[in-house]
Every structure is written in structure tokens, then in C-alpha cells.
Design brief:
The chain is α/β, with parallel strands linked by helices. It is built from five helices and ten strands.
Length: 157
Amino acid sequence: MHPNVERVARALRESGAAGEVVELPEPVPTAKAAAEQVGCEVGAIANSLIFDADGAPLLVLTSGAHRVDTAKVAALVGAAKVKRARPEFVREATGQAIGGVAPVGHPAPVRTLVDEWLAKYDQVWAAGGIPHTVFPTSYDELLRITGGESADVGMDE
């Protein structure tokens, strides 16, 4: 098992999460690809996006049916500017590469916003640490295991 997947699986077990990491046949670097492989609506995919909020990492778990409104997010977190993080910044903050960033299993806690749109689904799927792993969870469980804040973070695609 890849070390990132091991860290995510451990974090899920330690938090009492119900789901387990599963490996998919193909990498799923996009919400659309993930939805096709797990057989759900694209909105039930929890995209894990790392942003640079005035130099600090910010994880936004957004519905695959949304794009993040960075101005709205900046206002929510009290940052002057929120921008997409560079790949090196993402890896430093999470230990994981873009395309497989999980909501948990990072070297240190990352402030997290959880898109309230994910609450529309009984089950959501999140990345498991590398691009071809995911795990089933729920909106409430994502809030609990990440210590995240519920937020309206985006706009419809």
C-alpha cells in the first residue's frame, strides 16, 4: 500500500470513520472521472482543493458540481487573498500530490472548509491520498474527521 494511502487509512480508523479506502482501476484526477468510476453523481464527489490563503494552507472540500469562489472564501476566512496553491505548496502542506489529496492524513492539521452542498448526498466520495484511491463518507463525517467548518464556498459549474 502506498504510504499516503496508509496515512489516510490510519487517520480514518483513528477518527472512527465508517468507510475504508478503496483502489480504483484507473486514476481519478477529476470529479467527473471519480463519479464515473464509483457510479455516483458528480456533485457527490468531495474535491479536496488546497489554496494559499495569505501564505497559509487552506483545504476546501467542495462538491464536484461546484467551482470554488476564491473571493467568497477569502471573506469567509478573513484572508486578503486566496489563490490556488502551487503543486509544491500542496505537497508541503498535505504530503500528497494534486489529484489525490485526501481530506485527512496530512503531516499537520490544515484549516478546512466543507462545502454545504455536499450535505445533499447521503454518501460522498473523497480522495484517498493518491489519484486512484477514494473512500466513502458523509457530509457530517467529513466535518467531524477534518474539524472543518461548513461553508457556502462556490458556484455551480
